[in-house]
Every structure is written in structure tokens, then in C-alpha cells.
Write a structure and sequence with these properties.
Elements: H1 2-26, H2 31-46, E1 48-56, E2 63-68, H3 73-77, E3 80-81, H4 87-94, E4 98-100, H5 112-117, E5 124-131, E6 134-144, H6 151-218, H7 224-253, E7 260-264, H8 265-282, E8 286-289, E9 297-301, H9 302-318, E10 325-333, E11 336-343, H10 377-387, E12 391-396, E13 403-410
Helix pairs in contact: 1-2, 1-6, 2-6, 6-7, 7-10, 8-9, 9-10
Amino acid sequence: MVDRIRELERRAAVLSRLVEVGVTLNSTLEPEELLATIIRAAAEVIDTEAASILLLDEHTRELRFAAATGADPKVLARIPVPMDNSIAGVVFSENRPVIVHDVKRDNRHYGRVAEAVHLRVRSLLGVPMHIKGKVTGVLEALNKRGETFTDEDTQVLSTFASQSAVAINNARLLDKLQRAYAELGKLDRMKSTFVTIASHELRTPLHTLIGYAELLDQELEGEPAEYARGVVKSVLRMRRVIDELVNLRSLELGQVPLKRERLDAGQLLDEAYQEALALAKAKSQRLILEEPARRLPLRVDHRRILLALSELVANAITFTPRGGETHLRALGKSAEVWLQVEDNGSGIPAGEEEAIFGRFYQLEDPMTRRHDGLGVGLSIVREMVGLHGGRIWAESGGSGKGSCFTVVLPRAS
């Protein structure tokens, strides 16, 4: 009887702690503070030495540690956990709790994070984190003190994971709302910038055409070939600007029917390489096409995906100084194909990796900038890739450290 009373008192204490933690989580909206509160409370409630949170990386479809007891978040962020052959991957993909009483005997244990935080993991309990029925991450409790994990521990940690997932989602929504308010403040400046850039980009080629035409009319002798080359160059520049505007308008109106066909990723890269070769040579740059290790079939609209890749390559060459180099490569990743364009050019300022895909976005001041363009090319690329069920992102070490653009497309069966 005494033992029964003690057990009920213990459970009441746990439930009381869960309620208290829930109130704390819902009142905390700063992401780092929130994550620290979650792992600290999870370890306390389940009575374990440590706890950790893994969230899904939407780009790579890998799990990444968002927080762990006694660890530097920046170090953890660089350690991806694969979906295959990992305990967290099983919890996430199968949407079920997993208890491992002795991780030494489980070959699914992924030990890199334990090495990073200098923790010897003996036992582990992992439960999925849900938002509206969708698995968004994994909450783990490590090294149960004095005993083994029980079904009750699983129920308690699952309840805690649900509370935590809601709190994390609320913090993310608030962050997005704050970003949206900040973007609204830029709207007027963007409109003004667009008018300035568009008028400049359209007026200058027309003036050049008129000037050369007058010279050719007056000079029946001399160097007509040189003038003709100038006219052609200006026409090409004008055509690219007009093409971007037409593509942008088509995307806005939803008038982009896809004519899909089966082709190899290596063929696409080769065509983009051939199109950009003359531009790279004109800037004394090296354009390097890395041959894929095997065939990577795609089912895409040939013209539109080639347009997107060519835009990425041209963008890389534009923002890379003379003597630089740009690499084109294709990689197979499970049911996906990753197409990458990597340069050693001017790079992307920290924190701007997502902003560069916005329409009419310019890294430089429109009145003093050194590079031409309307700032719509990357937004068009993202929308073209999205129409194919793919995704794209940019990575850079910062200004002056180059950049890498990754296009992910579904692999054809």
C-alpha cells in the first residue's frame, strides 16, 4: 500500500512538472532559449543524464541537431544525421518511439554527436515530435539514471515532445511574422529600385543601337564589323532583359505549361556548359564540367530547366573575377538528383542566402553597382525548379568566399 501511494505521488509530481514546463514553453519565444529549456526539462522529467533535439532540414532531408545537453549549437549544426542507419532516422521515418537499452549492441547508433559533446551514450529513448500530424523532429533522452527506460517514460516523453513541437512551431511562426513586417518596410524602396533598374537596363541598349546605327549610316568605310559586333552585343543584352521580364510575367500569371521529357542530368549540364563557355573565356575564367559517376535520369521540361541552369552558370561567371573558376556537377542522392554550380567569386554576405532569391533583389546599390541585370534571374530559377517539384538553395562562406547553388530534382524512375 505504501509503495502504491509513493508511486501515485511520483506520477503526480511528474504531471505537475509537465504542466509547469508547458506553461514555460508557451511563454518563451526566443528560439535558443526555448531549445535549451526543452532539453533541460526533458532530462529532468525522465531522469536522464542528457537530452537532445533533432529537427528536419527541409533542403537536404537530413536530421540535424538543434540542441543537446552540454554542446555548442554551432558545432552540432554541422553534424547531419542520416535517415538511413540511425536510431533517430527510424523514430522519424517510422513515426514511433524507440528504446535502446544498450547502444553498443545496436549498429544503428550514430556516434558522431556523442564524440562532439564528449558523452558516452549507454541507453537511449527517442520519440517523434509532431505538428498537425506531421513529424517535424525527434526528441531523445540519453542514459537513464539507475534503471532502464519504461513504457511510462515513453508516454511522458511523448507528451513532452508534443508540447515542445507546438512551442517550437509558435516561435518559428513569430519569427516569420517579424520577417514579413520587415519586408513590408522594404516594399517602397524595392518599387523605386525596380523602376530605376528597369529604365536603365532598357534605355541603355536602345541608345547604343541608335548610336551605332547612325555611325554605320555615316561611315560607309572604316570598321563596320566592329560596329556590328557592338550592335549584336547590345541586342543580346536587351534580349536577356526582355526574356527575364517575359518569364517573370508568365510565372505571375501561371502560364508556364511544362512539356516533360526524359533526359540525363549529365546531358543538361553539358548543354549549360556549352552555352556558357564563350562567356567564361571572355572573362578569362575556367568553366569546369565534372562528369557524373553514373547516369542520373530526369523527367523535366528540357528548355525551362536548361534556362534555369544556364542562368545559374551565367550568374556565377558574372560575380566571379577574371581568372576565377566555376564548377558544374551532378550527384545522385536516394530518389533525387542534385545539380550544383559552384564558383570562387564574390560570394554572398552572411544572412543574405535566402534573400537573393527575392524578385528585384540587388546585392549592390542600383546607382553604383558594377554588375548588370534586373535582379529577377534567381527568382525565376527558383520558380522554374519549384514547378518541377524541386527545390534550390545557396551556400556561401561570406563575401569574397565564393558560393554554391544546389538544384534538387526528383529522379525519374
